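Chain X:
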Amino acid sequence: MEGVFDAPGVVVVKNGSSTLVDEKGRPDVDFIGSLCAQAARLQSEGYHVVIVSSGAVAAGMERLGLSQRPSDMPGRQACAAAGQAALTEVYADLLARHGVPCGQVLLTRRDLTDREGYLNARNTLGRLIELGAIPVINENDTVSVAEINFGDNDMLGAIVATMLNADLYVILSDVDGLYSANPDDDPDARLIARVEEITPEISAMAGDARSAVGTGGMASKVRASRATLAAGIPTVICKGRRENSFVDAVAGTGVGTRFESPDGTSRESARKFWIGLAEMAQGSLVLDSGARSAVVERGGSVLPVGVTSVEGTFEEGDVVNVLDTDGNLVGRGVARYSSEDMVRVRGLKLEVIERFMPEKAGQPAIHRDELLVF
């Protein structure tokens, strides 16, 4: 693919608001300093480190003298504008103490849904890495709105990791990792050391809790790990404030929960990840059990005969979700029919469709080459 940056040893670390902010709601400079020291150490050992950092709104609240997080979008965006400048200053200063330059990169989903924008972002990150700098990435909250944002920086980090073909993605959390149950409520809850597949049981363990200062909980981290599993990129969720947690995660010392596919699992193409992660789904196709098995287990395309229902309004060429009958996300791909046409052809075999839509002869609902299966 054009413009690919594929250096060995790329490590993406995501630092969330729940770890970056102290008990008073201010950016914790000591913690950021520890993260920067670990990143510089890994750089000196030959790794290429990329930091995805939350915390812009919290930093902006402190800089603007606000005691509470604004509830309106312009207020949050104003905090983000002030906070992004403050955070960049902190990262730049702390990394410079170790002789490492940094570069700020602000992204929105709109930047990445455009194919040229996606490649430009990847090439810029690649050049920063080649020049020995550590990119510090955040969502551009000053211009993002609910319809075009990433939802949380866990998924932004996953997109960056797949964009750069990273060797490892580390999510620094306020908990040790994924537990079998909520450890605050269940004394028998155990830390899950390794996950090879995101099953409904694993998703249920994650729940949907959100921290007071962040936008994502364990559920968002597991969703991000689902994406990196499909990419063949190991992901570690661990407690950020544990001493040397980032370095230990890279060293593979057993810290936190490691999400990793079994040996021999093939990696999907970078284009599929652009389709599945960077693009925004405009609707959904629901598959029957036979169609789901054909897609997941036998590597087939999505055929109209296996589609039981169509959700949302979309055009041919739009990205849509692929769901099973229980509403679980199976994959995401490029629709070859509009939603109006899909309603007409769902449940029908291709030879039947050809009789009244000859222009769609042999056309699947989603071709396998344009389908990312999670």
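Chain Y:
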Amino acid sequence: MRDCGGSVHWRVLVLLVLALAATGPVQAAEVTVVFRYDDYSARSNTDLEVRLIDAFGRRGIPLVIGAIPCFRATGPDDGQTLPSDKADILREAARAGIVDVGVHGYSHLKTGWWTELAGLPYEEQLFRLRRGRELLHEAVGIEAETFIPPYNAYDHLTLRAMEQLGYTCLCAGKLGRLDDGSLRFLPSTCGLADARRSIESATRAGDSRIVVILFHGFDLVPSAPESPDFLGWTAFEELLDWVVRRQDVAVRSIRELLDSDVDLSIHRFAANRRLSSMPRLVPSFLVHLFGTETGAYLSTDEARRLRTAKTGLYLATATFYAVLLALGAALTTALRRRFGRPLVLLRRAGIALLVAATAYACQNLTIGVHGAIATSVIGGACLGLYRQRLSRL
């Protein structure tokens, strides 16, 4: 009996080893990276753009360029269209397979609050979408199928006009209108400052992701005010080299994705839209712990799965700040019992610190994680200082 039992145990062990060997180590999913440069126009920095196209050409990777067909156009006046030298640069780069060109609005001129198209009547949007592509075709000889709305702003009339004119893909942000139709969606997911972190996070995932890195000329050349994604040229080239060296990353153009079987459907966009961006007050260690980084375009199934994880993340974040509040209160309560009267005199100073911390936390009308931590701890300290007075109420 013992021999029989031992034989069974060995048999199970061998089968287990064979199964593990057949499965092999879990391979990181290949991540698709798209570099998208916006605001190529008659007024943009030509020297920088020649240098940019050369940098991608030397590395054999594609660059998506959102081109503004005419600059500061008003009504029937096409404004300043692409001059011959700028058009030639795009044409030659496109022929060489370095550049994939998208229509970046008609003139990029605001017609409302941070928008060129959204809010305009249908016929006006139809004109701008049609005329923009015509001007780009006349200048560069490219029949662009991708539309990149200025300021990421569009509405249901924009989508309707795009379909009528035969556009294939919309590239904006993760937030936007959804309408049934045949359009495909590829939103930007991060800027240059977050590119490495987003790519590294995406390669650790078990599902293929797309990282769309959106940048402008002012992200590479200092300007006033500086872009929050400012990287500088040297660091930018280092980023390109780092991406090219990675075996788990493939740099592709939007055209390549549209010609492939990659899912860019409205269903994927809808699932990612519900995730949207991560509030700044959520600590990064919790984001990593829950695996809810938003610097990539997730598959439909993964985005739906992470919606549940994101709910848990917010509960954990609330608990984290509640613990900080309680720790601040407990610490000052203990100090007040030890030192008594002298610490009570710090009540007003504590309120002043709380006001200052709150103002710091809400700078630029957004709450950052460092400010939220400071506010929680100081707020808890104030509760500890005023604990006796509050208990009498």
